[in-house]
Amino acid sequence: MKSSKKIAICGAGIAGIATAYYLSKMSPNVEITLIDKNQPMAFTSSKSGENFRGYWPHPSMEALSSHSIDLMEALQKEYGKDAFRMEFSGYHFVSHHANKPIFADDAAPEFRARNEVLTDAEVIHKKHPYLAPTIQKSVFIKKAGNVDSITMGNKLLKVAKAEGLKLVEGEVKDINQVDGGFTIRLDNKQSIQADQIIIATGPFINHLAGMLGFEFPVWNTLQRKFLIPDPKKVIPADMLFTIYSDGQHLDWSAEEKTFFESEDNLKWLTRAFPGAIHIKPESGRIKMGWAFSTKAATPQWDIPSFDYFPQAVLKGASRFIPSLADYAENMPTPLIEYGGYYTRTKENWPLVGPTEMDNVFVVGALAGFGSMTACVVGELCAQYVSGEALPWYADYFHPNRYDNPSMQAVLDNLDLDGQL
Ligand SMILES: Cc1cc2nc3c(=O)[nH]c(=O)nc-3n(C[C@H](O)[C@H](O)[C@H](O)COP(=O)(O)OP(=O)(O)OC[C@H]3O[C@@H](n4cnc5c(N)ncnc54)[C@H](O)[C@@H]3O)c2cc1C
Fold it and tell me: For position 1, what pLDDT does the model report?
């Protein structure tokens, strides 16, 4: 009797888990082994803000994330609303410029039919009194919200295990090709045989690709978030997830500026910052992030610390929520700070599907959107591995798209990467 196909998924972050889940549904006869150095979802996936949105600058990303939202809703239908929390609380973008687009098409009737756009400062301030009265534009994206992606991931893992998935703890140290298959050696001396491999090691996808002799066109940037208490109740408990779209220079005093300019490692504080500071209330505290780092970082298991991040974010955020200026001067404690890597491609689209090496697949480069798109990228990778029909957007996320002239033409014409 022919033994069943063996598939090893390296990495039990949310992407590896979702891939395992959809693969076990599509190909019940394959043997799936999911390998991780640590507990499932303990690395990048545990740092996620767990926000989701169905709006992206490019139709392919919009289709991808919209379908993922549909898949998450389908999971809730199948396993019950209590299986994991998911709420459509929206994303609220604000700007000081009434006439500057926040989204390229935000003046179009179709956009306005789906979302709420306000350009009257008085109306905006009346509706959202915590915002600076000088805010002139407000765009509320309705197909967006927050999902408890860790509970969702645990549910998917439990179901996949019940279907036969084997979860193995160990760090992949090397991979050898043998007799048309692979031997994966772990740090605990265990060896796993596989006919096919799926690389889902998040910030370490190139580490695994390197073991097989190739490289993905990705890099990592270290991004952070923090939580502080809100003793002065600056942020209403029901404030929307709010994103400030404008870039800015931080408003330091002349003395502070001179000091930062004089220190090589602090000069960055005086430079231009991009838009997209984001802020939301969380259990009586304030959670804030700003993915402004563009510096390529070599991923490390222990996330390095970083001075002045909360100060910079609070200073920037007081531009649109003025009462936060108090906290920038006197930071409330305890401050909880954490970070993780955005693993990204140049255009900020993921890599999903077959690699340049036969029988090796990837699901990765999920930057700041991996929790919201885990289901769809997991499904897409499983469709490739199972030989199922592919959706129209598959080509846009194919790992070898840079060798495809028609895809390259699309990539050459992009101007926004949609990063938050
Ligand atoms: C600060 C921050 C905020 C974010 N906010 C959001 C958000 O609001 N919404 C959203 O959708 N996304 C958000 N993201 C992005 C999201 O968290 C990631 O895209 C997603 O978690 C990536 O999942 P992954 O499975 O690819 O990677 P990971 O979660 O990193 O999983 C990879 C796994 O591979 C394992 N691994 C690596 N190397 C090896 C090896 N050699 N052997 C064995 N195991 C190995 C690791 O232990 C890890 O568990 C955020 C990210 C950050 C950093």
Answer: 47
